[in-house]
Design goal:
Number of helices: 4
Strand order of the largest sheet: 1-14-2-3-4-5
Structural class: alpha/beta
Shape: globular
Order of helices and strands: HEEHEEHEEEHEEEEEEE
Radius of gyration: 17 Å
Strand content: 25-35%
Distance between the termini: 54 Å
Length: 254
Amino acid sequence: MVAAVAVAVMVHEAVAEPVVVAYDVVVPGWTAPPLRIVQLSDIHMGLPDMPVTRIAAIVAQVNALHPDLVALTGDYQGGKLLDWTGGKLGPGIRPLAKLRSRLGTFAVRGNHDDAFWAPLILPLYAMTYLQNAHVDVGPIVIVGIDDATGAPDIARALAGVPVGKPVVMLMHEPDGFTGVPVSVAVTLAGHTHGGQVRLPLIGTLLTNTRHGYVRGRYIVGGRTLIVSSGIGTTALPIRHDVPPEIVVVTLHAR
């Protein structure tokens, strides 16, 4: 009975409305008005916990935050033991096309996103897909890195970036942060789900990071990394003490 209640609680936590977690990042030399980036990570669409209707509700929640830019840091599909839909890219992520922001939606793939199909399908849903590439967007440069299951190349992605222009880097797995240069203002990542389940006295059991980048903000050698705990689940559709989250990052001057 106790075990059944515990599982029911964790399933309920997994499908709860995402909390909004906000970070301010001071960018030296910033001269533009503050820029609001909203990050979604690890959607893992599919039944039982991430049907299309839930994705649509999360999109509405993001739009209500009035972002200047939306960043998607991978794992749109897959990873579920109980996925009765097959978790394939396509109609399941159609609600993402309704994300609204002043500067657009920018995406990288995760380890559960097919390296062949992701660059073909994601742009069909009103987003710019970046794979070891960058694009000038208003007052910043957005850089997207391929997942570690592919061929991530930070140097290639940064080649030709205007000197002195603030850079925001998107990657799926936070361990890639070890290769990010200090010239990058902030790196946004996901993948870990914040451990997905955190137990009293024990903590998180599985974190999927070799460098301890589980969740939140990390400042290392003058570089800033923000790791989202994501909104979906892998393996079992459960969470505990690690709620699904939408990350808001505001770039501004001192």
